[in-house]
Specification:
Number of helices: 14
Largest sheet: 7 strands, parallel
Helix content: 25-40%
Shape: elongated
Oligomer: single chain
Radius of gyration: 21 Å
Order of helices and strands: EHEEHEHEHEHEHEHEHEHEHEHEHHH
Number of strands: 13
Distance between the termini: 23 Å
Length: 399
């Protein structure tokens, strides 16, 4: 790829690292700074890893990602400082077809070996599919690889299957981060190359601090036990199950607090009403805000265990943050969550049953399992390196 800087780029171009390296050039279409969120974090981490391993890698991000009417949060934009080690061209308007040709022409001009399309909901299929079609026409030698965080959404619509089919036809190969996503891909693209490799571990949130320091920074008492529910709050993530679990007898009188940290993407009154009705208001703390990067480590340093009581799931970046901070996990037996957590070795895999969830958390505290679980987490997290992810990416591209 050439080292041009589009006038719309939000981040200046550092020197290309891959031209004298391993030969392949990667261009990713995915959210990146100034957009925020888990997909943006993933995209930036993957691009850094590609560069560190000797490839040329850069990003096309979204100037318009969602219509404001469809975005449930307060803002789509980060308040962090711009990264100086990434080339990010802020070009794509996801719902303006006149823009898609411009983006495709930009890609053709860059002439990458590999075009990575990050895909997590069918809403983006028309834009990504149209761009991929034109790029392939102009650059038949390019490999178009979909990095699939999800393939079908947690909350389905009648258009999802048609949109997913359209997108799948435009891709040469696929990377899935859970077996359930791989199964979806194979249903819609049975003749295409697809590979499963786990979501890599996030290591961009700094190091842990002491529980006392974290409690002080968050203005919370340090003499409590904390179960952490972290990330954007949406219906499918099952906070309701965890609240019901906290009302069970098994968790009474255990000095255990539930700390909910993340922006609510639905009406928070649904949960505050549930908390009042269950009589657990004195044991639930809610921080209804998007947790910025430099404060993530405070929540994970304070917590004893991370709970992901999802109703449905594929994989989750929250699990990989927990790995980074050596935290045990409790997950429900849905999607790819149970593929990661070894039952009663590094945490718990529960059915979507509040009583079972409560009994697992009670077992964790009553039998002082934190240290033993942490040791297994530390050993297991070596599997989830970005180097391994890039290795598997190379594998599916070269097949």
């Amino acid at each position: 790829m050439t080292n041009k800087q589009d006038k719309n780029n939000s981040v200046p171009s550092p020197p290309l690292e891959g031209e004298a390296g391993r030969g392949l050039s990667f261009l990713s279409i995915a959210p990146a700074y100034p957009l925020r969120g888990g997909i943006a974090d993933f995209n930036e981490a993957l691009t850094r890893s590609l560069c560190a391993q000797g490839f040329d890698a850069s990003i096309i991000s979204y100037g318009k990602q969602y219509p404001s009417l469809l975005f449930p949060g307060r803002t789509q934009f980060s308040t962090s400082t711009a990264p100086t080690d990434l080339r990010i061209a802020t070009l794509l308007h996801s719902y303006n077809p006149f823009n898609w040709r411009k983006v495709a022409n930009y890609i053709v001009n860059e002439n990458p070996n590999v075009l990575l399309l990050h895909f997590w909901m069918p809403f983006f299929a028309p834009a990504l599919g149209s761009i991929a079609k034109r790029v392939k026409k102009c650059l038949p030698q390019v490999t178009i690889c979909a990095v699939c965080h999800n393939f079908l959404p947690h909350e389905r619509s009648r258009f999802d299957a048609a949109l997913a089919t359209y997108f799948a036809k435009r891709c040469d190969c696929f990377v899935a981060m859970s077996q359930s996503v791989l199964s979806d891909i194979q249903e819609f693209a049975p003749d295409k190359k697809a590979i499963y490799t786990p979501h890599p571990m996030y290591d961009n949130f700094g190091e842990a601090v002491s529980k006392t320091e974290a409690a002080e920074a968050l203005n919370l008492p340090a003499d409590k036990n904390y179960v952490l529910f972290f990330g954007l709050v949406r219906k499918y993530k099952g906070l309701d199950l965890l609240l019901q679990a906290f009302a069970k007898k098994a968790l009474n009188d255990k000095n255990i607090m539930l700390l909910v940290a993340g922006e609510f993407y639905e009406n928070p009154e649904i949960y505050t009403k549930q908390i009042e009705e269950l009589g657990i208001a004195d044991r639930v703390i809610i921080h209804n805000e998007f947790i910025v990067h430099d404060r993530v480590r405070l929540y994970f340093s304070l917590a004893d265990i991370v709970a992901q009581t999802y109703h449905t799931a594929t994989q989750s970046g929250i699990t990989q943050i927990a790995f980074h901070f050596n935290l045990p996990m409790l997950v429900t037996n849905v999607g790819g969550l149970s593929e990661i957590v070894k039952y009663r070795e590094m945490g718990y895999v529960c059915e979507k049953n509040p009583q079972e969830i409560a009994e697992a958390l009670a077992d964790f505290y009553e039998n002082n399992r934190a240290e033993d679980f942490r040791k297994v987490v530390i050993a297991e997290k070596q599997k989830y390196s970005w180097e391994r992810f890039v290795e598997m990416l190379e594998k599916v591209i070269s097949r």
